[in-house]
Amino acid sequence: MSTPYKSTPVFDETTLPAALRREHRTKDGVWGVIRVLEGELRLVLDDGPGAGADGTILTPDRPGLIRPQQTHHVEPLGKMRMQVDFHDQPPEGAAGGDIA
To answer: How do 24-25 and 56-58 pair as beta strands?
Structure first.
């Protein structure tokens, strides 16, 4: 099981940084797992596998996977709380589709 080497603080709809709301990417070799703790968040993959303008709705039961160097952004959908975990190898569930 892959353990995150770093996690962001918990953000809500008012504290979510502008940098996460616009296109950005993870570094080479870095996998991100977006965990929604409360509410809903739209994850838009701007390139790579799963890219699309409509995005994917993330919930506490449906985390989001960001592959290394994949351009993406997030949009809060009302009241929410979320956190991002960073891994240096594919997180558990990434290959099997357990992560959105």
So the answer is: unpaired
Q: CB of 57 within 8 A of CB of 45?
A: no
- Name residues whose C-beta falls within 8 Å of residue 67's C-beta, 6 or more positions apart in sequence: 26, 31, 48, 49
| Pick from 3, 92, 76, 86: nearest CA to 42 | 76
* Pairing mode of beta strands 41-45, 71-76: antiparallel
How many helices (H) does the chain have, and how many strands (E)?
Answer: 1, 9
Query: How far, in Å, CA of 58 to CA of 23, rounded?
Result: 17
Q: Domains for the chain: give ranges and CATH numbers.
A: 6-87 (2.60.120.10)
Q: In angstroms, rounded to a whole number, what is the distance separating the alpha carbons of residues 17 and 25?
A: 14
Q: List pLDDT tens digits, range 32-77.
A: 999 999 999 999 998 766 666 688 999 999 999 999 999 999 999 9
Q: Does residue 31 contact residue 69 with C-beta atoms inside 8 Å?
A: no
